[in-house]
Design brief:
There is one protein chain. By secondary structure, the protein is an alpha/beta fold. It is globular, with a radius of gyration of 20 Å. The chain is built from eleven helices and twelve strands. Strand 9, helix 11 and strand 10 form a beta-alpha-beta unit.
Length: about 260
């Protein structure tokens, strides 16, 4: 027993970082979610559920300013993945990212054209990054961004991720259809962008362990959900939480 304690004491003195590792504070990365950015319109306002997905351009600008003023830096999902799970080889795939002191991820679901018209220019003007989870099956349809717009955003430093081909709830699909939604959307986006697509967002936040396994098999590095939490290294990289932002969301209650 005494010899065992002596050995532990030696290890503690020789490698103090080993004893401290389990007690080191975990890095917290809030992942924010937007859908529409712009003017909802009178007809839209008649439907509260639909209207709740809209954030006015003025409010969005104010929220991004608040983030910048308090020292937060927007990052992509590549950076988050490389930090949280370097042991999987992620770092070698996406580069050696070093997260800033106060990271935050700003994501947009569905690929609506108003996010290109209103959010994208504001992010560019502030030198901030965004992650746009798009539906390649809807690309170019009324109300959705086009392939050319995706390429422009990607070339400007924005991250383009998959939201599946056509927004079906993955957990309710048969295995073959579910795999097709994940693999085909990635293939379509990579063909459009000419670069790897590594991140997926599950439509409606609908997922289970089979969806996670299929996403990993399809070649993604992360999967995001609608769980309202702040992401840390302890979270499963294929079930990362996000926090929905609305018109009157008080970011002080969200960001640590």
């Amino acid at each position: 027993m005494r010899a065992h304690l002596s050995l532990l004491g030696f290890l503690f003195l020789a490698f103090p970082w080993a004893a401290q590792a389990d007690h080191a504070p975990s890095v917290r990365v809030p992942i924010l979610t937007y859908h529409h950015v712009g003017d909802c319109g009178e007809e839209c306002m008649k439907h509260p559920k639909a209207a709740s997905l809209w954030v006015s351009t003025k409010a969005f600008n104010r929220q991004m300013q608040w983030i910048a003023d308090r020292g937060y830096t927007t990052v992509t999902m590549d950076a988050v993945s490389a930090l949280f799970h370097p042991q999987t080889g992620t770092a070698s795939l996406v580069g050696n990212f070093k997260l800033p002191a106060k990271p935050v991820v700003v994501t947009f679901d569905d690929g609506y054209s108003d996010t290109y018209d209103n959010a994208f220019p504001l992010l560019l003007s502030r030198k901030q990054k965004g992650v746009f989870y798009v539906l390649p099956g809807f690309a170019g349809q009324p109300g959705y961004i086009t392939a050319d717009q995706m390429r422009k955003m990607s070339g400007s430093g924005m991250d383009i991720g998959s939201h599946t081909v056509d927004h079906k709830p993955l957990r309710r699909l048969g295995p073959l259809t579910r795999v097709w939604e994940l693999t085909e959307s990635r293939r379509m986006l990579e063909e459009i962008l000419g670069k790897p697509v590594r991140h997926v967002c599950y439509p409606y936040g609908d997922y289970n362990r089979f969806v996670e396994m299929d996403a990993q098999e399809a070649g993604y590095l992360t999967g995001t959900t609608t769980q309202r939490r702040v992401a840390t290294k302890e979270w499963d990289s294929f079930a990362l939480p996000r926090i929905s932002v609305r018109e009157r969301t008080d970011l002080r209650r969200i960001l640590p």
